[in-house]
């Protein structure tokens, strides 16, 4: 039935778009210029600081392929350590000896003349010699998450044998055909291989899908977050395990949030790290809506289990997203703080809460822009390296002294010549209903204070996520709309990271109500101080932002045009259509079968007769997170009410669009929609 609905959506959407003539050509020169400029960014896929802090390694995308380079710690003397062409090298990681460097590469098969497709394998190179890198595995499947065993004699990694797709809920789903849920379930496990290669050994049980792991300092144990398959759905009910690094060893459950009482009950865990002496594990626990978009409080638990975890950061007003031990009583923590990235040192006393010292805080994003924040620390935790970008500077490898006295310093110039085509960014803060709320406002390109401008409100996905200053990727988003002449307001309403865990949880069982009031209060605050024409407001968003767009136009007629990307119109039907329903119980308090009313309360379809706003709807055909029938249902309802609408379903696309043609087309259509119903951006 789902396949038939999608097929109908594609046919009807294409017919509807053609009839309404609402789309611009993807060849629109404005769109082409913006996306071409964004496409010039050299993407830094990984960065690693050697434990002795003398060298950096990074993998950077050049001419469509990712290559490995090594440099001094200040970025000088950068050079490639391989001579491969036409293939990619990713996931650079220094060994504990600061001499060996591991990375993933799909080059070996091409170099040998054997067609092995795009299969990644683990490679190791000794940078103190002129020897070529050694391929130490011959894998067939998906591989990720490289980690050196602390003695440097072996590597661990996440492995899905015979995988057919990337192990992620955001990747395009497999076609839902045949007997659903019976065949084709792929399980990601922790595997290991020796430094000299040889047999690849699987460590974790076949009945557990592992999402992330780390070694103990003595190398004898791993801590990992895992759940029963299917892995795409069950991360939200995953447990924290500890297991000996021995094939066939049985794991010990250390944290099962379903069995807890108190604030961590039924919530998510991530980033487990053994203390230096191996006696306890620190991790991040909280309400998280997507794997990889990590945030919560910092918790510790005995590594042997048998005791409840302890929240060592109760009541903080930031959101930790990454951590590692600097000493037995201190953590280095990357966190979100009111729309900015912050790195802090948290002292852990024997008893009581941790105390934080801010090492640096800057208006930028640490990491890849998807909130999967990470840093690479030197062995003494005195320095850190990471990828960082902002609204006005594209990504560069950045190094920081963790002394609390100096600011981070970019040590590469991969993207130094790039200049933003959008307007300046301004942090906006306001209060609403007792909450401190923050967001980012992009000015129109070529801003003229004598003019009044239309403004588009762009709400982020998640909801457990945040807008932080970063150079945008190629595709739909706030920056291109700013470049096209609009004010673009990107709020972080309740449910977002950056204001503490209580703020993240403030929209539980309340989707679309308090968070929408926060957004509208932010619009009011901006209009008091900026030349925004309230009669030319637009609303847009993707994923949770797509839901907020659909729901928002049922609650207010203030927005004159809307574009809903990968949205959710009916939480009741969505529960049975999506492939990741486990995320919903922590937010709604029960399944839809036990409490249908709480789902109906936040469903746009429940209030559909109140909609007056012309709404464009776009979605990927194989979206597993927000299935296409949700967009079809909203489009059908708007047509029945006589509200101007158009639906476009993009064949083969998942939750995030992978094809350049799709990204160009959706931006062109959105621009045409806003231009049509809001008029020229500035006047």
Provide structural commentary.
With 683 residues, the protein is an alpha+beta fold. 19% of the residues lie in helices and 33% in strands. The chain contains 13 helices and 37 strands. The strands form 8 sheets. Strands 30-31-33-32-34-35-36-37 form an 8-stranded mixed β-sheet, with helices on both faces. Strands 25, 26, 27, 28 and 29 form a 5-stranded antiparallel β-sheet that branches. A 4-stranded antiparallel β-sheet has the order 1-2-3-4, with no helix packed on it. Strand 15 and strand 16 form a beta hairpin. The longest helix is centred in the first third of the chain and has 19 residues, at 2-20. The chain is globular. Mean pLDDT is 91; it is low at 1-26 and 111-116.
Residue stretches low in confidence (pLDDT < 50, at least 5 long) are 1-26, 111-116
Number of helices: 13
| Radius of gyration computed on alpha carbons | 25 Å
The end-to-end span amounts to 49 Å
Helix content: 10-25%
Beta-sheet strand percentage?
25-35%
3D shape: globular
């Amino acid at each position: 039935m789902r396949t038939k609905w999608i097929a109908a959506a594609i046919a009807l959407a294409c017919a509807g778009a053609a009839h309404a003539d609402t789309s611009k050509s993807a060849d629109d020169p404005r769109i082409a210029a913006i996306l071409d400029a964004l496409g010039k960014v050299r993407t830094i896929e990984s960065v690693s600081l050697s434990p002795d802090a003398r060298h950096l390694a990074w993998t950077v995308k050049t001419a469509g392929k990712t290559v490995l380079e090594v440099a001094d710690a200040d970025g000088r003397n950068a050079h490639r350590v391989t001579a491969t062409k036409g293939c990619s090298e990713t996931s650079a990681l220094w060994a504990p000896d600061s001499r060996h460097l591991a990375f993933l590469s799909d080059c070996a098969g091409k170099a040998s003349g054997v067609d092995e497709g795009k299969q990644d394998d683990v490679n190791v190179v000794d940078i103190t010699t002129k020897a070529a890198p050694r391929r130490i595995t011959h894998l067939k499947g998906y591989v990720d998450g490289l980690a050196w065993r602390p003695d440097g004699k072996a590597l661990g990694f996440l492995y899905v044998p015979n995988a057919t797709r990337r192990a992620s809920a955001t990747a395009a789903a497999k076609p839902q055909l045949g007997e659903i849920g019976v065949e084709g379930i792929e399980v990601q496990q922790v595997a290991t291989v020796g430094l000299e290669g040889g047999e690849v050994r699987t460590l974790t049980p076949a009945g557990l899908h592992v999402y992330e792991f780390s070694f103990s300092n003595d190398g004898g144990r791993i801590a990992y977050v895992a759940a029963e398959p299917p892995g795409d759905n069950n991360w939200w009910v995953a447990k924290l395990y500890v297991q000996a690094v021995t094939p066939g060893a049985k794991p010990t459950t250390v944290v099962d949030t379903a069995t807890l009482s108190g604030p961590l009950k039924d919530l998510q865990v991530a980033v487990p790290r053994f203390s230096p002496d191996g006696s306890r594990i620190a991790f991040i626990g909280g309400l998280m809506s997507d794997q990889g978009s990590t945030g919560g409080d910092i918790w510790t638990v005995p590594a042997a289990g048998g005791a409840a975890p302890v929240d060592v950061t109760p009541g903080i007003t930031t959101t930790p997203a990454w951590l590692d031990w600097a000493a037995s009583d201190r953590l280095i923590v990357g966190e979100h703080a009111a729309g900015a990235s912050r790195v802090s040192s948290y002292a852990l006393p024997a008893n009581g809460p941790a105390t934080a010292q801010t090492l640096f805080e800057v208006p930028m994003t640490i990491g890849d822009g998807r909130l999967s924040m990470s840093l690479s620390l030197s062995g003494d935790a005195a320095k850190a390296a990471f990828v960082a970008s902002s609204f006005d500077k594209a990504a560069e490898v950045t190094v920081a002294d963790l002394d609390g006295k100096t600011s981070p310093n970019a040590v590469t110039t991969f993207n130094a010549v790039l200049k933003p085509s959008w307007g300046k960014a301004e942090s906006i803060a306001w209060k609403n209903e007792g909450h401190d709320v923050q967001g980012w406002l992009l000015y129109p390109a070529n801003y003229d204070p004598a003019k009044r401008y239309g403004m588009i409100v762009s709400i982020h996905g998640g909801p457990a996520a945040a807008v932080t200053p970063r150079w945008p990727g190629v595709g739909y988003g706030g920056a291109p709309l700013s470049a096209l002449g609009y004010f673009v307001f990107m709020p972080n309403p309740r449910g977002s990271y950056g204001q503490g865990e209580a703020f993240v949880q403030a929209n539980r069982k309340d989707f679309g109500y308090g968070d929408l009031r926060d957004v509208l209060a932010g619009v009011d605050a901006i209009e008091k101080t900026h030349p925004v024409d309230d009669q030319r407001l637009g609303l847009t968003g993707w994923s949770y932002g797509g839901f907020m767009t659909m729901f928002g136009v049922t609650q207010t007629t203030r927005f004159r045009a809307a574009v809903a990307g990968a949205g959710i119109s009916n939480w009741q039907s969505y529960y049975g259509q999506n492939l990741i329903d486990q995320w919903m119980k922590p937010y709604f308090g029960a399944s839809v079968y036990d409490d249908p009313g709480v789902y109906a309360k936040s469903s746009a379809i429940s209030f559909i007769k109140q909609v007056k706003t012309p709404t464009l709807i776009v979605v990927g055909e194989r979206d597993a997170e927000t299935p296409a029938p949700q967009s079809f249902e909203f489009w059908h309802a708007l047509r029945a009410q006589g509200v101007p609408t158009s639906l476009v379903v993009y064949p083969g696309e998942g939750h995030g669009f992978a094809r350049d043609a799709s990204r160009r087309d959706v931006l062109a259509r959105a621009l045409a929609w806003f231009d049509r119903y809001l008029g020229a951006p500035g006047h």
